[in-house]
Design goal:
15 helices, alpha+beta, twelve-stranded antiparallel beta sheet, S-layer homology domain-containing protein, about 500 residues
Length: about 500
């Protein structure tokens, strides 16, 4: 028996020796993997560079390692291990850092990680690497739709090349078209609208809003009648706009709303002429309500890059903030024209950061100007600073409680590089409990008790816009002093 055991062990050693040799030949080191990734990504390499601390690394790989370090693909503490074999989870992190374009890896939240990583072996993935894998799956840098991820798998040359090829092909498919990066094309198309000086846009959007309310005071008969059973409203808005750079825009909106009880139709016209905004609506009849925004115009102008037509066009700030999320869809043909398709999918966390960085200042400035203008129009005393600050707090609370996700789809003419069509989808959820509680605290001396009210609102909107008349004549309203609406006229009793 002893002889048989020795013989079996000897046979296993003989058989496994060439297999081990074969495996070692096929396995990739981290240094080799980094070189292949940087070559695929088109990173410029300075072949003359040398790093003294990496003398144990083959000279062929040293300039690649230095380039990877400078680009943040690897860190200083990873350098000593570059001769080791590379695990799949390590490869995923390197691929994402090399090919990441859409947004910021640090923006990946725990919620996103849980949504993307549904592998049976999630527990084996290094927690520090999970956000990179989630990012790679969200942006198609890493292939998904597999039951297990195998994070600890040692990569062979063949598997390494498959991973790199997938990331490279995905990058080219989603981010490069005819040599133009998606974010660059979006910036170019937006710039063309400014250079043309004038353009027109027509479109419409449909909105559904549902509101659920609990805890209304029994004595609030109006509230009980309007909101006691909740509310479900459909609204359609048709929009016709003419714009002229840098600071003129005329927008006409026809709004049709339909609730379970009431149907209505309203027409609103808005004319922006520099710091002056004119509005025509039901209350003003054939006259225009004039709002002088000059007190905050410079602030709004600097934040919005002097872009009054931002209702149906992304502002320069939105372009700058969102461009890293731009990717290509499939090219399409419409009406005998060929179009690039640029997709922008903005999640709720990104949208909230955009609001905090840009929109909050605009809303605060606009709210302050609007409240003061209302006081002037109504012949009342100016709102004091406490009232204005209170209104700002309400708006801030409301925005903080909003969860907004929005998707844009731009159709950019392949020949002219104008975007001629845009599709928009937006979903908004708002829990208004905190807002109601803040109001309850501020109005404790009121007769009605608001402390038990709970309210939430869900909104879905879809819109389509067409752009045309680039560089052609536009027509704006001619408004004289006789056309200005006087609020006092509306307060005069009718016989």
């Amino acid at each position: 028996m002893k002889k048989i055991t020795i013989l079996l062990i000897s046979m296993l050693i003989i058989v496994s020796a060439p297999l081990a040799s074969f495996a070692n030949e096929q396995q990739f080191t981290k240094a080799e993997f980094i070189k292949e990734v940087l070559d695929a990504a088109g990173v410029k390499i300075d072949k003359t560079s040398e790093i003294e601390s990496l003398e144990n690394i083959d000279k062929e790989y040293i300039p690649y390692i230095e380039a990877a370090y400078k680009k943040g693909i690897i860190s200083e503490d990873e350098k000593p291990d570059l001769n080791d074999v590379i695990l799949k989870q390590e490869a995923a992190k390197i691929l994402v850092k090399a090919f990441a374009i859409k947004g910021n890896i640090e923006d990946i939240t725990e919620e996103m990680i849980n949504k993307e990583l549904e592998f049976t072996d999630n527990h084996s993935i290094d927690p520090k690497v999970k956000k990179y894998i989630a990012y790679g799956l969200r942006n198609d840098i890493i292939e998904g739709n597999k039951e297990s991820f195998y994070p600890m798998m040692i990569l062979t040359k063949e598997i390494s090349e498959e991973l790199i090829d997938y990331a490279k092909n995905s990058y080219d498919k989603h981010f490069i078209r005819d040599g133009i990066a998606a974010d660059k094309l979006l910036v170019l198309a937006n710039k063309k609208l400014e250079e043309d000086k004038t353009y027109r846009a027509k479109g419409s959007f449909n909105m559904n809003m549902t509101m659920n309310v609990e805890g209304l005071p029994a004595e609030d008969e109006i509230g009980q009648e309007l909101l006691g059973q909740g509310m479900n409203m459909d609204m359609t808005t048709e929009l016709d706009m003419q714009a002229e750079s840098p600071d003129k825009a005329y927008i006409k909106q026809v709004i049709k709303s339909d609730t379970e009880e009431v149907q209505s139709e309203n027409t609103i016209e808005i004319y922006m002429d520099g710091p002056t905004m004119y509005q025509k609506m039901d209350i003003s009849g054939d006259k225009w309500i004039k709002n002088d925004m000059s007190s905050v115009y410079n602030k709004i102008q600097s934040l919005q890059a002097n872009n009054p037509q931002s209702m149906s066009q992304l502002s320069d700030e939105q372009i700058e903030f969102f461009k890293d999320y731009a990717r290509y869809g499939e090219n399409v043909k419409k009406g005998g024209k060929e179009y690039y398709v640029i997709l922008l999918d903005i999640d709720k966390e990104t949208y909230k950061r955009f609001y905090e960085e840009y929109t909050k200042e605009i809303m605060d400035a606009s709210l302050e100007a609007s409240l003061k203008q209302q006081s002037e129009n109504n012949g009342l005393e100016q709102k004091n600073e406490v009232e204005i600050e209170m209104a700002k707090q309400f708006v801030t609370q409301m925005i903080n409680d909003m969860e907004i996700e929005v998707s844009y789809k731009f159709y950019i003419n392949k020949n002219t590089k104008h975007y001629e069509k845009m599709d928009l989808t937006m979903d908004m959820y708002m829990n208004m409990d905190n807002l109601i509680q803040k109001m309850a605290q501020m109005f404790q001396d009121e007769d009605e008790d608001l402390s038990k009210i709970k309210m939430e609102m869900v909104t879905h909107m879809e819109g389509q816009f067409d752009y045309f008349g680039f560089g052609k004549e536009v027509v704006f309203p001619k408004i004289t002093e006789d056309d200005i609406f006087n609020m006092e006229d509306a307060l005069v009793p009718q016989n």
